[in-house]
Every structure is written in C-alpha cells, then in structure tokens.
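Weekly sync notes, structure subgroup
Attendees: PM, AL, DS (notes)

Item 1: joint prediction request from the bench team. They want all two components modeled as one assembly rather than separately. Inputs as received:
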Amino acid sequence: MGNEQLEQLRVKLDDVNLKLLDIINERAKLVQEIGQVKKTQGVNRFDPVRERKMLDMIAEKNEGPFDTATLQHIFKQIFKLSLELQEDDSRNTLLV
Amino acid sequence: MGNEQLEQLRVKLDDVNLKLLDIINERAKLVQEIGQVKKTQGVNRFDPVRERKMLDMIAEKNEGPFDTATLQHIFKQIFKLSLELQEDDSRNTLLV
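Output from the run, pasted for the record:
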C-alpha cells in the first residue's frame, strides 16, 4: 500500500518537474526578448531595482511551504543564470 | 515604443515568476508528502537513484533556451532545499 502511494506521488512529482522545466525555459525566452529590447535601447541588462521588485513580489505572494528566504535564493540563482544566457546571446552575436 | 514593449514583457515576466513560485511550492508540498510516506516505511529520504532519474528526464525533455547543465544545476538546488525542508519537518515533529 505504502509503495503504491509512493509510486503515485512520484508520478505527480515527475509531472510537476516537467511543468517546472517548461516554466523556467519560458522565463528564459522572455528574458532573452527583454535583453534584445534593452540592447536596441542601449540600456544595461542588469537592473538591480527591477530584481529587487521581483524578489519583493515573491515575498508578498509566497504561501509556503518554502520560506521566503529559500525561494528568493532559488530566484536569485535563476536571475543570475538568465543574465549569463543574455551574455551568451551577445557573445554569439559578436561571433557571427 | 521600446519602453512600452519592455513594459509588456515585464508584465509577462511577473506573471511567469508567479507561476514559477506556485510550481516550486506545489513541488515542495509533494516532496513533504513523499517524506511522510517514507517515514512510515522507515526508508531513507535521500534517494540518489531517483534523483538521477529526475535529472535524466530533464536532459531528455529540455528544449532550451537554457542548456541541460544549467537546468540540472537549478534542479539539484531545488532537490537539496526540498530535502532540508523534509528535515525541518522531522525536527518539528521531534519538538512537539
């Protein structure tokens, strides 16, 4: 019985992992688009004020079980990796 | 025009951030449930074989723009923090 329950929860977890994968990549595409717009405007890609606002929104909307500090840590990682993705885009543009 | 476009993309990004927040917390709830079931079975919470399978699924299903190594890095962080969440649950159980 326990094993069956565990198996069901794991099927759900796999499904959630795939949703998470989709959303993270959807987010990355948006960040790339934003990077393109900023590039045409000659604006710096890294915007600490905007990042702070996004982190504040996480704090405001978080209903757990993760605490806000943990979630902000995950989001900061994603912000950092997204910025690196934009930098790779610029580097590729320079190479072609 | 560029600013309007940027504003629209940021509204979309805020929306995606909230979806991401929901999914991460939904995942955390499932992991807590799995932790409870494992506890009644006396099984170790950390399961490297299961983690490997989840990371392989990420590799298989990833369509970018993030590369697989980056995504696996993000997921490993989430796995680690989820395990800590389960440990907090156990600690709280011990305290009451």
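Discussion: Chain B has three helices and no strands.
Action: AL to compare against the crosslinking data before next sync.
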